[in-house]
Amino acid sequence: MRSVEDRSLPTHVDVPPGQFEATVVEESRRRPVVVDFWAPWCGPCRTLGPILERLAAQAGGAWLLAKVNVDADPDVAARFGVQGIPAVKAFRGGALVSEFVGALPEGRVRSWLEGVVPGPADEAFAEAQALLEAGKPPAAREALARVLALKPTHGGALLALAELELAEGRRAEALAHLDRIPPADADQHSSRVAALRLRASAPADADVGTLRRKVEADPGDGEARLALARGLAGKGEYPAALEELLEVVRRFHRKGPGEEARAFMVQLFDVVGARSELADAYRTRLSRELYR
User: Fold this and answer.
1) pTM of the predicted protein model
2) Annotated catalytic residue: which of 45, 85, 103, 158?
3) Is 42 a catalytic residue?
Protein backbone atom coordinates (compact mmCIF):
# COMPACT_ATOMS: atom_id res chain seq x y z
CA MET A 1 0.00 0.00 0.00
CA ARG A 2 1.27 3.45 -0.87
CA SER A 3 1.52 5.85 2.06
CA VAL A 4 3.88 8.40 0.55
CA GLU A 5 3.16 10.99 -2.08
CA ASP A 6 2.83 9.78 -5.66
CA ARG A 7 2.09 12.74 -7.92
CA SER A 8 1.19 10.42 -10.79
CA LEU A 9 -1.98 9.33 -8.97
CA PRO A 10 -5.27 11.27 -8.95
CA THR A 11 -6.09 12.86 -5.60
CA HIS A 12 -9.88 12.88 -5.96
CA VAL A 13 -12.52 11.48 -8.29
CA ASP A 14 -16.28 11.49 -8.71
CA VAL A 15 -17.72 7.97 -8.45
CA PRO A 16 -20.24 7.27 -11.26
CA PRO A 17 -23.31 5.18 -10.38
CA GLY A 18 -22.48 1.50 -10.48
CA GLN A 19 -18.71 2.05 -10.25
CA PHE A 20 -18.25 2.02 -6.48
CA GLU A 21 -16.66 -1.42 -6.37
CA ALA A 22 -13.99 -0.60 -8.97
CA THR A 23 -13.38 3.02 -7.95
CA VAL A 24 -13.41 2.59 -4.17
CA VAL A 25 -13.17 -1.01 -2.98
CA GLU A 26 -10.55 -2.22 -5.45
CA GLU A 27 -8.50 0.98 -5.26
CA SER A 28 -8.48 0.68 -1.44
CA ARG A 29 -6.40 -2.46 -1.84
CA ARG A 30 -3.63 -0.23 -3.22
CA ARG A 31 -4.03 2.90 -1.08
CA PRO A 32 -6.60 4.26 1.40
CA VAL A 33 -9.79 5.69 -0.13
CA VAL A 34 -11.89 8.29 1.69
CA VAL A 35 -15.48 8.44 0.41
CA ASP A 36 -17.46 11.67 0.73
CA PHE A 37 -21.21 10.99 0.47
CA TRP A 38 -22.74 14.35 -0.46
CA ALA A 39 -25.51 16.09 -2.42
CA PRO A 40 -25.67 19.44 -4.23
CA TRP A 41 -28.45 20.75 -1.97
CA CYS A 42 -26.55 19.94 1.28
CA GLY A 43 -25.13 23.08 2.93
CA PRO A 44 -22.71 21.30 5.32
CA CYS A 45 -21.45 19.29 2.34
CA ARG A 46 -20.35 22.51 0.69
CA THR A 47 -18.33 23.28 3.83
CA LEU A 48 -16.70 19.87 4.25
CA GLY A 49 -16.11 19.07 0.58
CA PRO A 50 -13.44 21.74 -0.05
CA ILE A 51 -11.63 20.75 3.16
CA LEU A 52 -11.41 17.13 2.02
CA GLU A 53 -10.32 18.14 -1.48
CA ARG A 54 -7.61 20.42 -0.11
CA LEU A 55 -6.29 17.73 2.25
CA ALA A 56 -6.33 15.15 -0.54
CA ALA A 57 -4.35 17.50 -2.78
CA GLN A 58 -1.83 18.13 0.00
CA ALA A 59 -1.38 14.36 0.43
CA GLY A 60 -0.35 14.15 -3.21
CA GLY A 61 -1.85 10.75 -3.97
CA ALA A 62 -1.16 9.02 -0.64
CA TRP A 63 -4.92 8.52 -0.40
CA LEU A 64 -7.83 9.00 -2.79
CA LEU A 65 -10.89 11.14 -2.15
CA ALA A 66 -13.90 9.55 -3.87
CA LYS A 67 -17.05 11.66 -4.01
CA VAL A 68 -20.46 9.97 -4.19
CA ASN A 69 -23.54 12.05 -5.02
CA VAL A 70 -26.28 10.29 -3.01
CA ASP A 71 -29.00 11.69 -5.30
CA ALA A 72 -27.31 10.15 -8.34
CA ASP A 73 -26.52 6.81 -6.62
CA PRO A 74 -28.98 6.17 -3.77
CA ASP A 75 -28.36 2.43 -3.89
CA VAL A 76 -24.75 2.66 -2.78
CA ALA A 77 -25.72 5.16 -0.09
CA ALA A 78 -28.31 2.70 1.22
CA ARG A 79 -25.80 -0.15 1.01
CA PHE A 80 -23.52 1.62 3.47
CA GLY A 81 -26.28 2.90 5.74
CA VAL A 82 -25.94 6.58 4.88
CA GLN A 83 -28.81 8.35 6.66
CA GLY A 84 -27.36 11.82 7.05
CA ILE A 85 -24.89 13.79 4.95
CA PRO A 86 -22.12 14.67 4.69
CA ALA A 87 -21.06 11.15 5.61
CA VAL A 88 -17.40 10.23 5.26
CA LYS A 89 -16.18 6.64 5.20
CA ALA A 90 -12.62 5.34 4.86
CA PHE A 91 -11.75 2.10 3.08
CA ARG A 92 -8.48 0.22 3.32
CA GLY A 93 -7.68 -3.27 2.06
CA GLY A 94 -11.14 -3.57 0.56
CA ALA A 95 -12.95 -2.95 3.86
CA LEU A 96 -14.57 -0.06 5.70
CA VAL A 97 -12.21 0.95 8.53
CA SER A 98 -13.46 4.29 9.86
CA GLU A 99 -16.19 6.90 9.38
CA PHE A 100 -17.81 10.08 10.65
CA VAL A 101 -20.92 12.12 9.93
CA GLY A 102 -21.22 15.90 9.71
CA ALA A 103 -19.06 18.82 8.69
CA LEU A 104 -16.12 18.58 11.07
CA PRO A 105 -13.60 21.43 11.27
CA GLU A 106 -10.34 20.92 9.40
CA GLY A 107 -8.31 20.14 12.51
CA ARG A 108 -10.58 17.28 13.48
CA VAL A 109 -10.60 15.96 9.93
CA ARG A 110 -6.79 15.96 9.94
CA SER A 111 -6.76 14.04 13.25
CA TRP A 112 -9.21 11.51 11.84
CA LEU A 113 -7.08 11.03 8.74
CA GLU A 114 -4.03 10.23 10.88
CA GLY A 115 -5.81 7.09 12.00
CA VAL A 116 -6.76 6.15 8.45
CA VAL A 117 -3.71 6.87 6.32
CA PRO A 118 -0.44 5.17 7.30
CA GLY A 119 2.38 7.65 7.77
CA PRO A 120 6.16 7.23 8.14
CA ALA A 121 5.77 6.07 11.76
CA ASP A 122 3.30 3.38 10.72
CA GLU A 123 5.63 2.21 7.95
CA ALA A 124 8.52 1.93 10.41
CA PHE A 125 6.27 0.03 12.83
CA ALA A 126 5.23 -2.41 10.11
CA GLU A 127 8.94 -2.98 9.42
CA ALA A 128 9.58 -3.57 13.13
CA GLN A 129 6.74 -6.11 13.33
CA ALA A 130 8.15 -8.00 10.36
CA LEU A 131 11.58 -8.08 11.99
CA LEU A 132 10.10 -9.36 15.25
CA GLU A 133 8.25 -12.11 13.39
CA ALA A 134 11.51 -12.99 11.64
CA GLY A 135 13.26 -13.38 15.02
CA LYS A 136 15.51 -10.32 14.70
CA PRO A 137 15.06 -8.34 17.94
CA PRO A 138 18.10 -6.02 17.56
CA ALA A 139 16.99 -4.82 14.12
CA ALA A 140 13.40 -4.56 15.36
CA ARG A 141 14.55 -2.41 18.27
CA GLU A 142 16.22 0.00 15.82
CA ALA A 143 13.01 0.20 13.76
CA LEU A 144 10.96 0.83 16.90
CA ALA A 145 13.33 3.62 17.87
CA ARG A 146 12.63 5.23 14.48
CA VAL A 147 8.90 4.92 15.13
CA LEU A 148 9.17 6.73 18.46
CA ALA A 149 11.42 9.40 16.96
CA LEU A 150 8.59 10.15 14.53
CA LYS A 151 5.74 9.61 17.00
CA PRO A 152 6.80 9.38 20.66
CA THR A 153 3.35 8.18 21.77
CA HIS A 154 2.95 5.34 19.25
CA GLY A 155 1.15 2.76 21.40
CA GLY A 156 2.11 -0.27 19.31
CA ALA A 157 5.80 0.61 19.38
CA LEU A 158 5.78 1.21 23.13
CA LEU A 159 4.09 -2.14 23.71
CA ALA A 160 6.59 -3.93 21.50
CA LEU A 161 9.52 -2.27 23.25
CA ALA A 162 8.09 -3.20 26.65
CA GLU A 163 7.97 -6.83 25.54
CA LEU A 164 11.56 -6.67 24.30
CA GLU A 165 12.73 -5.15 27.58
CA LEU A 166 10.97 -7.86 29.58
CA ALA A 167 12.49 -10.58 27.42
CA GLU A 168 15.91 -9.20 28.39
CA GLY A 169 15.04 -8.84 32.07
CA ARG A 170 14.81 -5.04 32.16
CA ARG A 171 11.61 -4.64 34.17
CA ALA A 172 11.93 -0.96 35.07
CA GLU A 173 12.48 -0.02 31.43
CA ALA A 174 9.45 -2.11 30.40
CA LEU A 175 7.24 -0.35 32.95
CA ALA A 176 8.50 3.03 31.76
CA HIS A 177 7.40 2.22 28.20
CA LEU A 178 4.00 1.00 29.42
CA ASP A 179 3.51 4.22 31.40
CA ARG A 180 3.98 6.27 28.21
CA ILE A 181 1.20 4.53 26.26
CA PRO A 182 -1.69 6.96 25.62
CA PRO A 183 -4.93 6.06 27.46
CA ALA A 184 -6.83 5.31 24.25
CA ASP A 185 -4.18 2.82 23.11
CA ALA A 186 -3.93 1.32 26.59
CA ASP A 187 -7.70 0.76 26.61
CA GLN A 188 -7.57 -0.81 23.15
CA HIS A 189 -4.86 -3.26 24.27
CA SER A 190 -5.92 -3.52 27.91
CA SER A 191 -5.37 -7.29 28.25
CA ARG A 192 -1.89 -7.12 26.73
CA VAL A 193 -0.90 -4.11 28.85
CA ALA A 194 -2.18 -5.80 32.02
CA ALA A 195 -0.29 -9.00 31.22
CA LEU A 196 2.95 -7.09 30.65
CA ARG A 197 2.54 -5.18 33.90
CA LEU A 198 2.06 -8.46 35.73
CA ARG A 199 5.23 -9.87 34.20
CA ALA A 200 7.17 -6.71 35.04
CA SER A 201 6.11 -6.72 38.70
CA ALA A 202 6.09 -10.49 39.35
CA PRO A 203 8.64 -12.19 41.66
CA ALA A 204 11.62 -13.83 39.99
CA ASP A 205 11.47 -17.57 39.25
CA ALA A 206 13.66 -18.40 42.24
CA ASP A 207 11.34 -16.42 44.53
CA VAL A 208 8.31 -18.32 43.18
CA GLY A 209 9.90 -21.59 44.27
CA THR A 210 10.59 -20.17 47.71
CA LEU A 211 7.03 -18.90 48.03
CA ARG A 212 5.62 -22.26 47.00
CA ARG A 213 7.62 -23.98 49.73
CA LYS A 214 6.49 -21.35 52.21
CA VAL A 215 2.83 -21.98 51.35
CA GLU A 216 3.33 -25.73 51.63
CA ALA A 217 4.86 -25.26 55.08
CA ASP A 218 2.06 -22.92 56.23
CA PRO A 219 -1.13 -23.21 54.08
CA GLY A 220 -2.78 -20.47 56.12
CA ASP A 221 -0.20 -17.80 55.17
CA GLY A 222 -2.41 -15.55 53.02
CA GLU A 223 0.32 -13.09 52.13
CA ALA A 224 2.58 -15.87 50.88
CA ARG A 225 -0.26 -17.27 48.76
CA LEU A 226 -0.93 -13.84 47.32
CA ALA A 227 2.73 -13.39 46.45
CA LEU A 228 2.83 -16.87 44.93
CA ALA A 229 -0.25 -16.09 42.83
CA ARG A 230 1.40 -12.93 41.51
CA GLY A 231 4.51 -14.87 40.62
CA LEU A 232 2.52 -17.55 38.81
CA ALA A 233 0.51 -14.92 36.94
CA GLY A 234 3.70 -13.15 35.94
CA LYS A 235 4.91 -16.41 34.39
CA GLY A 236 1.63 -16.79 32.51
CA GLU A 237 0.45 -19.68 34.69
CA TYR A 238 -3.02 -18.16 35.04
CA PRO A 239 -5.06 -21.24 36.12
CA ALA A 240 -2.61 -21.97 38.93
CA ALA A 241 -2.60 -18.32 39.97
CA LEU A 242 -6.40 -18.17 40.02
CA GLU A 243 -6.55 -21.36 42.10
CA GLU A 244 -4.22 -19.86 44.71
CA LEU A 245 -6.23 -16.64 44.78
CA LEU A 246 -9.49 -18.50 45.20
CA GLU A 247 -7.99 -20.36 48.15
CA VAL A 248 -7.06 -17.02 49.75
CA VAL A 249 -10.63 -15.80 49.25
CA ARG A 250 -11.92 -19.02 50.79
CA ARG A 251 -9.67 -18.76 53.85
CA PHE A 252 -9.94 -14.99 54.40
CA HIS A 253 -13.53 -14.30 53.40
CA ARG A 254 -14.01 -10.50 53.13
CA LYS A 255 -10.86 -9.83 55.16
CA GLY A 256 -7.63 -8.10 54.10
CA PRO A 257 -5.88 -10.85 52.11
CA GLY A 258 -9.21 -12.17 50.82
CA GLU A 259 -10.28 -8.80 49.47
CA GLU A 260 -6.89 -8.28 47.84
CA ALA A 261 -7.13 -11.73 46.25
CA ARG A 262 -10.63 -10.98 44.97
CA ALA A 263 -9.45 -7.74 43.35
CA PHE A 264 -6.50 -9.51 41.76
CA MET A 265 -8.77 -12.25 40.39
CA VAL A 266 -10.91 -9.60 38.71
CA GLN A 267 -7.76 -8.12 37.19
CA LEU A 268 -6.72 -11.53 35.89
CA PHE A 269 -10.12 -12.04 34.27
CA ASP A 270 -9.29 -9.13 31.96
CA VAL A 271 -5.84 -10.54 31.26
CA VAL A 272 -7.09 -14.00 30.23
CA GLY A 273 -10.10 -12.57 28.38
CA ALA A 274 -13.15 -11.27 30.21
CA ARG A 275 -15.46 -13.74 28.46
CA SER A 276 -13.04 -16.64 28.15
CA GLU A 277 -13.93 -20.08 29.54
CA LEU A 278 -11.23 -19.72 32.19
CA ALA A 279 -12.55 -16.35 33.40
CA ASP A 280 -16.16 -17.54 33.36
CA ALA A 281 -15.31 -20.67 35.36
CA TYR A 282 -13.40 -18.81 38.07
CA ARG A 283 -15.88 -15.93 38.12
CA THR A 284 -18.59 -18.47 39.00
CA ARG A 285 -16.43 -20.09 41.68
CA LEU A 286 -15.52 -16.68 43.10
CA SER A 287 -19.20 -15.72 43.35
CA ARG A 288 -19.96 -18.92 45.23
CA GLU A 289 -17.27 -18.14 47.78
CA LEU A 290 -18.33 -14.55 48.21
CA TYR A 291 -22.04 -15.25 48.66
CA ARG A 292 -22.02 -18.56 50.51
Assistant:
1) 0.61
2) 45
3) yes
